[in-house]
């Protein structure tokens, strides 16, 4: 069936005049003060929205809160609450009275979910249910649009080379299982009449990525090595392949899903896949170093091809109990229906992340975060 491309004019962008609520993260800063939430805040404020962010009182304060990035007077209001507490959700929903709810709250670290499986399920699976139930309890289900941040991890041990909206799910971690629950919960409420959509997003990164994610771990290590402040980058599986894009592109896709005449689920991806090994090579290339790999398996190391200096090593302790070796998404439906496609290339993404961490070291703006603890 031919699909109608929804044309979004500059005039419609400027006249949105809506209110949005973004739920907060529980780990990895993926909520209103995190990577996705902060870019989403900027996008929505630029469209004329008033934005409300649900934040946890004991959450670590982000070094660059969205309200600070957008300057004084930005239309962003923060409210203390928690997706573990349905009463706080009801209170905040009633206060914000949003047109759109972007549910980004999650324990978002896949590796950590193996040791915190019960907590991950409570936040990622039941948290989604609590938000949707709160919307219905307040009688908002006919006017509020709901976005659920799903994940490409639900595809897990894939049988198809490229994954799209019709690919069977085969989750391989407590995180992925919890996200799959949230996916079907969203579908169930949509079948009951709620405008509810799932964004099945493949890996999306940026300089705002949490410090314990592999891409940011690589970029900050390269920055430290560039400044002579660190000797060796330690990683787990170098041969995991991911479809990596930029978070700024992906939040635009989230917003476009919410502007459609009918609710549908979409995969957002670049259509390219690269290994952790390739990310490492690209990152070091940004500081003029070519990596040469020596050895095999857990004994494999990466050295400076010019000097032989050890720069990268692997640690079996950083391998996941069950690993997803290959993910490669198809953005075809998003391209045809939403008119969406990523604008930032893999190389541009890596360069932006490395250069941002180098600058942060030079001016000391984020020194504590760059040298923070690792998982």
How would you describe this protein?
The structure is a single chain. This protein has 375 residues and is α/β, with parallel strands linked by helices. The chain has helices spanning 10-14, 35-46, 66-69, 86-96, 110-113, 117-137, 174-191, 214-226, 247-258, 276-285, 332-338, 346-363, 367-370, and strands at 19-22, 50-55, 76-80, 100-103, 145-151, 195-201, 204-205, 233-235, 241-242, 245-246, 266-268, 274-275, 291-294, 301-304, 310-314. The protein has two domains: 16-206 and 244-268, 3-Layer(aba) Sandwich (Rossmann fold); 214-241 and 274-326 and 347-363, UDP-galactose 4-epimerase, domain 1 (Alpha-Beta Complex). It has a seven-stranded parallel beta sheet with strand order 3-2-1-4-5-6-11, sandwiched between helices. A four-stranded mixed beta sheet has the order 8-15-14-13. Its EC number is 4.2.1.47. Its cofactor is NADP(+).
